[in-house]
Design goal:
This protein has 17 helices and 34 strands. The chain has 659 residues and is an alpha+beta fold.
């Protein structure tokens, strides 16, 4: 069997693919204090179901992400060229809040006292002007030991061009603590981004090393880690390049959403992954989009990763009234402990509590009835918002959901409208435990006509990890160099050594001479400018083939396809086996008698809303004016009715059909 695991803020999702291609899924409550214990418990539960050998465990880890966001990484030192010790603290002179006269910049992950300079120098062309002396290195070792460092990041000026000095210092410091170098982590120009990426790798590396060692001791099974670029890597590679896991879980969601949507006939999708702590949105226009310019916790990370935007709006996002009397939702989350008020421990109102108050989540609805909810506690929590705003409980719950929806709509507009895409041209693929509850309302605001809720929506990120290939990325800074083919050959040789049977994909970061930023395009050896001009026109609306170009960085991606779960088409029954139950649910501004379907009993026959569809790991709300059916791959397809039909139904409720 193969096991995919997505560790979320509230629940940890498990997908188990057995040797007969059957798929099993289950959830366990996350434990922020001991995430490994939950993973091991899930592996034990999966392996105990049948007498099968566990072939592989692919895990979407949040260890690096949480350590970075919460600033709970290792005690790290940055070793850099003398005179450049302030590079991390100076950063870029960009102003993210243009009209804020008193901006509060988030400080770097290490203080200035943990930045150490070494007298060495390499010029921009790679010429070594000064090598660090033995005495200089000895003094550095003494200073690092006195500072009681747990991890060391080495990043010298122009080391992407010539790494000789970094290698010399790294060899001398070997054994002191966890150690990483910029020429290995991020061999590209732009000193600040390279330093930041290397420092973050060192900051979270020891925690990832310890975490993976605990998992491997407890499970005795091979464990792989999902990368931010949509592929997975071995645990050995993850120990060395922990920074490549900072968007590990969300990347699995993008892969899963795209692969499942393709089966249903959609190649242009907006991924909408709403979990317990946050919502991750992405855009796939024929393929998942990638970026090299990500920021995690306000810190730049320059590695290939899927283009994912995250907002602090999830089922556990806490609602509050701010000093100005405005209702806010998130980014603070109740997490797994204490969790939403309805879980029985917390008392602060959350998005999940608002759904409970509006009847959309029943007491025995979550994880197949395995978790009993406290409805009275949820109502009391939402009442606290009502009292502050002097409105009713129902109005307060509606307000919480509207604010959460607005936050998520802005995120979707950011990855679509603000990047030249019309969201109306895409299908919205909703997954995560809460995605289906909000998808139709958000789609309506954005003008999206089709919502797709895949099978196993509550654990789609875990499934995406089993649909991913093994991937390694290699790069080399080549600005102003003429030996490009030799550099490509070197990278390909390294890639072949790491993954002998892998497919190699070459690309390059190219720009017009004088531009500040680049576009990554496929490498065309006989005419490298042609794909760049084409991509420049697509992105910016124009190109200038007469203008000279610069090749800044070359890249090689090694992709090794692995055996994937077979998503087999299955006939759906034409007649529902069971008449749906009904309960009063608040949707589209009013209480309505709403049929509640078990997803396992749905048919291919189109059914008009309102309706609530309940599954083990997720719930989907279909408001009035929408209809839904199940396709042959188990995905729930929800489409908007034409306005004329909606108006007719509003005038004559008897025209609505629930069968």
């Amino acid at each position: 069997m193969r096991i995919g695991i997505d560790a979320g803020g509230t629940f940890t999702d498990f997908i188990v693919v057995h040797d007969n291609d059957s798929i099993e899924t289950f959830k366990l409550r996350s434990n922020p204090r001991s995430p490994a214990s939950v993973i091991l418990a899930g592996i034990t539960r999966a392996s105990g179901t049948r007498e099968e050998v566990i072939q592989e465990v692919i895990h979407g880890s949040t260890v690096a992400t949480n350590a970075l966001l919460e600033r709970k990484g290792a005690r790290t030192a940055l070793v850099t060229t003398a005179g450049f010790e302030d590079v991390i603290h100076i950063g870029r002179q960009n102003r993210p809040e243009l009209y804020n006269l008193t901006p509060q910049l988030r400080p770097p992950v290490i203080p200035r006292s943990m930045c150490f300079g070494v007298r060495e120098r390499a010029y921009f062309d790679g010429t070594i002007a000064q090598s660090p002396s033995a005495a200089e290195i000895a003094r550095l070792k003494t200073r690092l030991r006195r500072a009681r460092v747990e991890s060391i990041a080495i990043c010298f000026l122009h080391a992407y061009r010539n790494s000789e000095n970094e290698k010399r210092v790294a060899a001398a410091l070997e054994g002191i603590s966890y150690l990483c170098t910029s020429h290995d982590v991020c061999p590209e120009f732009r000193e600040y981004e390279r330093s930041s990426t290397t420092l973050i790798n060192a900051y979270v590396g020891p925690l990832m090393y310890k975490y993976l060692a605990e998992l491997e001791r407890g499970s005795h099974h091979p464990i792989a880690i999902m990368q931010s670029n949509g592929g997975f890597m071995s645990a050995k590679e993850a120990r060395k390049h922990a920074v490549r896991t900072v968007l590990s879980g969300p990347a699995g969601g993008v892969v899963g959403a795209f692969e499942v949507a393709k089966l249903s006939g959609f190649s242009r999708i907006l991924g909408f992954d709403m979990g317990g702590t946050s919502t991750d949105v992405s855009l796939c226009d024929g393929r998942p989009r990638e970026t090299l310019e990500a920021s995690i916790g306000g810190l730049p990370v320059r590695i290939p990763m899927l283009d994912i935007h995250t907002v602090g709006a999830g089922g556990g996002s806490i609602a509050r009234v701010d000093e100005g009397g405005l209702l806010r939702v998130g980014p603070e989350s109740a997490g797994a402990d204490p969790g939403p008020a309805c879980y029985g421990k917390g008392s602060r109102p959350t998005v999940t509590d608002a759904h409970v108050v509006l009847g959309r989540i029943a007491a025995d609805q979550l994880i197949g009835g395995g978790m009993r909810l406290d409805l009275d506690r949820a109502a009391t929590a939402v009442d606290s918002i009502g009292r502050s705003l002097k409105i009713s409980r129902i109005a307060a719950a509606q307000g919480i959901l509207r604010v959460a929806n607005a936050n998520m709509e802005r995120a979707i507009r950011l990855v679509s409208v603000e990047r030249g895409h019309d969201p109306r041209d895409f299908a919205l693929v909703a997954f995560g435990g809460c995605g289906g509850l909000h998808a139709c309302e958000i789609a309506q605001e954005l003008g999206i006509q089709t919502v797709l809720v895949p099978e196993h929506a509550g654990a789609l990120s875990a499934l995406g990890m089993l649909l991913a290939d093994r991937v390694r990325d290699y790069a080399a800074g080549v600005l102003n160099r003429s030996d490009l083919e030799r550099e490509f050959t070197r990278l390909e040789r390294v890639a072949r050594k790491d993954l002998p049977a892998a497919e190699l994909i070459c690309s390059a970061d190219v720009r017009y001479t004088g531009q500040s930023y680049e576009l990554t395009v496929p490498w065309q050896r006989d005419n490298p400018a042609a794909p760049f001009h084409e991509e420049h026109r697509r992105v910016y609306g124009y190109s200038n083939p007469e203008r000279a170009i610069e090749i800044v960085t070359i890249r090689v991606r090694a992709r090794l396809p692995v055996e994937k779960p077979r998503m087999i088409s299955k006939p759906t029954p034409s007649v529902s086996a069971k008449k749906p139950a009904s309960r009063r649910i608040h949707s589209a501004g009013a209480w309505r008698d709403t049929p509640v379907f078990l997803r396992s009993s749905l048919t291919a026959v189109a059914v008009r809303g309102p309706a609530l569809i309940v599954d083990y790991g997720s719930t989907t709300l279909v408001p009035p004016g929408w209809r839904f059916s199940l396709d042959n791959f188990g995905s729930l397809t929800i489409t908007r009715l034409r306005k004329a039909r909606v108006r007719a139904m509003a005038k004559n409720p008897a025209t609505r059909s629930h069968a």
